[in-house]
Structures are given as structure tokens and as C-alpha cells.
Amino acid sequence: MTGERPPGRPRSEAARRAILVAALELVAETGYGGLTIEGIAARAGVGKQTIYRWWPSRADVLLEAGAAKADLLVPVADQGSYAADLRVFLGASYRLANHPQLAELLRALMAEAQIDAAFAGRFRVGFLERRRDALAIITDRARQRGDLPDRPAPGTVADIVFGTLWYRILATHQPLDPQLVNDLVEVLASTPPATPAGPPAERRS
Amino acid sequence: MTGERPPGRPRSEAARRAILVAALELVAETGYGGLTIEGIAARAGVGKQTIYRWWPSRADVLLEAGAAKADLLVPVADQGSYAADLRVFLGASYRLANHPQLAELLRALMAEAQIDAAFAGRFRVGFLERRRDALAIITDRARQRGDLPDRPAPGTVADIVFGTLWYRILATHQPLDPQLVNDLVEVLASTPPATPAGPPAERRS
Amino acid sequence: MTGERPPGRPRSEAARRAILVAALELVAETGYGGLTIEGIAARAGVGKQTIYRWWPSRADVLLEAGAAKADLLVPVADQGSYAADLRVFLGASYRLANHPQLAELLRALMAEAQIDAAFAGRFRVGFLERRRDALAIITDRARQRGDLPDRPAPGTVADIVFGTLWYRILATHQPLDPQLVNDLVEVLASTPPATPAGPPAERRS
Amino acid sequence: MTGERPPGRPRSEAARRAILVAALELVAETGYGGLTIEGIAARAGVGKQTIYRWWPSRADVLLEAGAAKADLLVPVADQGSYAADLRVFLGASYRLANHPQLAELLRALMAEAQIDAAFAGRFRVGFLERRRDALAIITDRARQRGDLPDRPAPGTVADIVFGTLWYRILATHQPLDPQLVNDLVEVLASTPPATPAGPPAERRS
DNA sequence: GGTTAAGCGAGACGGTACGTCCGGTCTTCCT
DNA sequence: AGGAAGACCGGACGTACCGTCTCGCTTAACC
């Protein structure tokens, strides 16, 4: 059976949680530049070795602390149309990124991915691709439904959507903006939010 | 007169250049994580103090080394239409970001901006805003010309264009892609590829 | 009765012996500086707790491993005269200390005694004083026999004899030397080699 | 010329002295087991690197701190006879070793020499051999003078003298003892301190 | 034959110090 | 006054062991 216990003292769930909480608090308070393994260990009341035993770097601690949240909090339920699905997905994503603490965490993860190539891989698999997969559910459904525009391929849609979101987080520090959601939905789903009748009147003057 | 020399020995141009070259080489060889002031100084045959005297951080050395290039190499000359202007701008930008050495430099700058708030400001003013200003020339010209779509506001266009570019650089490490340029131009300038009536003479990059 | 068994699982003699053997091997291979509780446990195939349960420190493991040997192997049988007794005692002691493995062990014990005061007490009682007691048998017998010089008191004799032995072990790493035994016997038992009248039958070692 | 300065900032004499003082204080207060590089650095107000730059180990700091003292404080001036020279030398040595602070230092050095073979070599050359050389001055003078007993060779005299001294320091912690000095002088120089007339009356009963 | 009690291998835990790296500052002489 | 050299104080790194603490599992004696 797979349920067998390995020998020896089992891992402390309390220590694991204390470490994740301490890391999130510290990155919110001091920024990623001020985040150190020693600081996390001290705040969590834990030996440094306990951190090194389970995570390869401080960024991996943050990754574990933050990865699940995005999955759980951004819905991909069917809203009846591609445009509606996209709008709900974008709105939830942007709302999430608007929590200062979470935005700081995302900045840290992306920064570390630029510095440490090994972490970049784990970040891609454990976070970025998961988010793309979530969006793929929406585009797949739209294709089956028949209301997916055929020119910006789903992969390009993901590049544009996540690119715009990340740019706001990393470069302008203003992730949320309802108007931006409207513009993206309009541009990608060709469905002006309030004017469903004459969509592309302003396309060419 | 402003042209008066301050007393004492003038700044060594040779040292300045050796430092910039050493920094670029090192960031290309070892990545930003392996870039240190001591390493730059050793490679450039320079005292550490000489670096600290003129730059606030290692990232600022890179910023000076790389900032001017983008300005010079991405043209904003009038191509006759908004779509054409955009296509040329995007193509040049993407081509630039496709140099591995330059992409590594951009990754380093964006990473440091997430870690060091003071540098983030200098990076915004010295690089990001300059790129947005370049794009603004194109949208301003399009507005005067009359072929600027009014729904995605110019600022949003910049978010989408640069967001997609940066996302490719930071997250997927595949910045250049002619198809992506096509899709963005189509989506933002409303030039469906199925409309051969338009002036897509410059489509081939 | 004292022979009653306490409840619970009895101490494992196999583990005890494995620990003593592992400690002796490791101290011989890596020196005392490379001897660790974790290393002993790993080599002996034993949990660390099993060592901590029975010995206060790694040095006490060595003490138990090596203490008995000296008692057993250095004879104090009556040789007929103080000089002869002394000669046999010294010869055996020096010969013992000439085993490299045992010398390394003695060095370790004396070193730890300088570092850990509590161990120093156990070392004195469990080793040093036992050796002095063995020598005291010889001096007592000489006093009763009447051939004990009265000026270097027995305690001083012990200081000189063991001092010289330990100095050779600790400082010069050349414990054994037949000529040294001769000199010490001559100096302490007043048997000038130039006086062939005396009973130097046992001179040749 | 040899007096040329190397380039760069010269070594700080203040830091060097602060480190030696801190090490001596700490070893006296906490014993060698409680002496750490970090503790020395903290007490001296010095970076750890400054210690590692100039000394290979904490014991070498103590060696430098203590080595010169013995040379300076134990006189080898001519007292007119071998016995008198020896008595003065022994008295000064024992008096020196009776300073608790210095005795603790000597214990630390000898202990470390048992643990670290590389340090043992430096200790021998930098301390032990120097002390033997000092004693050799006395035996050489005695030989020239003609009052050196010929049987315990000078090397053996050194083994006995320093052996007894070290044994008292390491094993009994009672280095000084005027009676011990008398006994050693008598035994090695065959000159009872107050009874120069009938030297060896009690030699054989 | 089940209960109780302790020893045992294993290994995670909170700590402390290690020896190294680098940051940013300073002190020296030279240009 | 700038610059090369390099020592300085400081702080975090990642590692090695310390001595302690759970775990599940023997291995006995006792009921």
C-alpha cells in the first residue's frame, strides 16, 4: 500500500505552516530583498535546517505559500459565453493581484525566476502553466460552443491576457482596473460590454 | 559657463567603459544571480570604489549599459498607417529582445526592479517610460491621422503591447514570434488578415 | 537481591559493543577532531539516542573502550627490588603507549579533559588515579622492603613518571624509548649504570 | 629594499590587538570549549573575516597571544652552577604556569594540538621547541662548565622537566610546588638544595 | 496471552557555530 | 580629486553536529 509511513519522526505540520506564514508576513513587510532564510526561521521559531530540508530556496517557500491560492480563487465556471467567461476570469485574476500582499509575492516569484534558472522551471510548472491551463479551459469551452474567434490562437490569448496582467503587477504596480478588463474582453472576444449590437463600428474610420 | 572643469583628476572614461563591458559580459555568462560588484571590479581591473562612486547598484550599471540601445534601434518613423507603424515598432522591439544577451539584461533589470524600490523608479524613468513614450508617438500620429481605434485607449494599448513582450521575455523566454506580431496588430489595429484590401506590404519581416 | 532485572527490554550488548568498536575505529582513522556522535552512530548502525542513553559524551565512549586495557596490561608483580619493579612497570606502560591506536585514544582523552571539566573528573577517577594507584603499589612495596629513596616522595615520583610518559605521547608523539626507561629508573631509583656492584640484572629490556 | 609597503590599506594593528585580548579574556572566562571565533569577533568588535584572514584557527590566535610571554618571562641567565640555573628556570616556569589565565591557555593549546595535526606542528615549532631551546642553553652551559651529569642526556632532561610541568598543568591542575622544584633539581643535578655536603646519603639504605 | 515497560533504529526538530561570500566603507599610495 | 588595491565591519549564506523529541518496532517480565 502507498499509505505506509516512512520510519523516523514524521514531518512537523506545525513547523511547515509556521514557515509559510512567516515567509508571507516578512515578504509583505520588508519586500523580497529583505527576506532571508534566517529571518523566516527566526520569525517561525524554527531551525534553519528545517527550511533547507524541505525547500530548495526562499522563493520556493513563497511558491508553495502562494501557488494554491490562485487555483482556488479564480473561477472558470461556465458563464454562457466566451466573453462572459473571460470577463469573470479576468476580473477574479485582477482582483486577486490587487491584494498588496499577494502582488508582492508574485513580484518576488517572478524576480527570482529571472535570477535562478532552476527555480524558474519550478515556477513555470507550479504556477505559470497552471494559470494557462485554467484559461485553456475557457478557450476550449468557447471553441466547442463556437464563439471563439479563430485568429488570436488560444496560446496568444494567454500571452496577451497574462502578459498585460503581469506587466501591470511588475512595471506599473496597478494590477486592477475594470476598464482594462473591458478593453481586453472587447479586443479578444470582440464583444463590447454594453454595446452588443454594433461591435466593430470604430474598427476602421 | 557650464563647460568649466571641476578641479582634480577627471573621471576615467576607460574605467567607465571597462565596467560597462565587464558587467554585460558577466551577466551574459553567469546570469544576474552570479553578477557581483566584486566580480565586475575584478573583471574590469578596477577598484570597487570606482563603481560605487558612479552607480548606486549593480543594476544601474546594466541600466546604463543597455538603456540607450532600445531607443536607438526601435524606429517610430511614419509608415503611412497605424497598423503599419505598429507592425514595424513591434517587429523591431521583438527582434531586439530576441538577442539572448539583451534579453538576459532586460530580465535582470526587471528582476532588480522588483527587489529594490529605488531602482524601480530609476528603471521606470530611464527605460519603461521611454519605451511607452516611443509608442505614444505612434498612437498620437494615428489619432491625428484619424485611424486610431478609440476603445483601447493608448495607455491600454501600451499595457497590452509591452505586457505581451515582457511576458514572453520573463515567463516563456521566447520573445520573438512573427505570428504574435500579426495577432497583436490585428487585435489592436483591427486589420483582419482575411482583408487583403489593406496595405500589408510590410508584413514580411 | 541486586541481580533483579528491571522491567522492560534489557540493554543491547550488541549495540554497546558496536558503539565501542566504531568509536575506536573512527578515532584511529580520522583523529579525535573527526569523531562525532553521528559518525559513531552511523558506523555502528545505531540510533544516536542509544549513545546518549548510556554515555555523557563521545569521550566517555572512548574512556570505556580504553580504560580497562591499561589496568590489565601493566603488571605490578614483585620483581625483587624497587628498581626492577619500576623498570618493568615503565617498560610495560611505554610499550602500551606505543600502539598508535592506543596513543591516539589517550591523546583524545587528555584533550577532552582540558575542554570539558566534567569529563576531566571522570577521566581522573577512571583512568589517571588508577594508574597512580598502580604505581603506588610499587612504591609502597619498596618502602616496606626498605629500598625506597626518601627524597622524591611517591607522589612526586608519579608526577615525574607519568609526566614524562604523557609528554612523550602528547608533545613528541614518541612514547617508547628503552634508554628513557633506563634514565628514569636510574634517576628515581638511584642505580648509577657506572656502579656495576648494584643488581642491574634486569637492565636489558 | 624589504621595507616597501604592499599596496592597499595596511593591516589594522588595533584590530589585531583587540582580537588577541578578546581571545585571552574569553578563554579565561569560559574555557576553551566555550571559545568561538564568533565570540572573539563579537567581543573584539571585529568582523569574522578579519580573524580568518590572519589566523588559521582559534588556537592559533591563542598561540600568538601566549607564545612570546614564556620566552620573555623565563630567564636563562647564568647563576653559577647547573643546579642553580635549573632551579631558577624551573621556578620561573612553574610560577608562570601558576597564573590561572596562562595555565588555561596552555591547556587549550595542548588540547588543540591533539585534535588538529596541522596546529600541532605550529605549536611545536612556535612554542614547545622554543622552550626546549631555552633549557638547552642551560645544559650547554653546564656541559662547558663541567657540572652536567652525563647520564640523563639533555633531551631526556627536557622530557622529564617539561613532562612533569605539563602533567601538573593538564592532569592535576596544580602546576606550582616549590618542593617539586627541589626534587627535580636534586634528581637531575644531584645537588640537594641545602645539604651540598653529603649528597646521596639516602640513595641506598 | 495480553499488558506494561523500556530499549532500539530512524530521522525530524530547535539551535549554535562553522568557514565563505559579498556588500558597502575606509585607508593607503600613486597619478 | 580620481583610481587600484585591499583591509575593515557586518550580515546572510548553506552545512555540520549537537542534544532532544517523536514515531513504529522489538524484547522482555508480569499478570
TrEMBL record, chains A, B, C, D:
UniProt entry keywords in alphabetical sequence: DNA-binding, Transcription, Transcription regulation
InterPro entries (alphabetical): Homeodomain-like_sf (IPR009057), HTH-type_TetR-like_transc_reg (IPR050109), HTH_TetR (IPR001647), Tet_transcr_reg_TetR-rel_C_sf (IPR036271), TetR_C (IPR011075)
Organism domain of life: Bacteria
GO molecular function terms listed in the Swiss-Prot or TrEMBL record: DNA-binding transcription factor activity; transcription cis-regulatory region binding
Listed name of the protein: TetR/AcrR family transcriptional regulator
PROSITE patterns: HTH_TETR_2
Matching SUPFAM superfamilies: Homeodomain-like, Tetracyclin repressor-like, C-terminal domain
Taxonomic lineage of the native organism: Bacteria, Bacillati, Actinomycetota, Actinomycetes, Frankiales
DNA-binding annotation, residue ranges on this chain: 36-55
Domain HTH tetR-type residues, every copy: 13-73
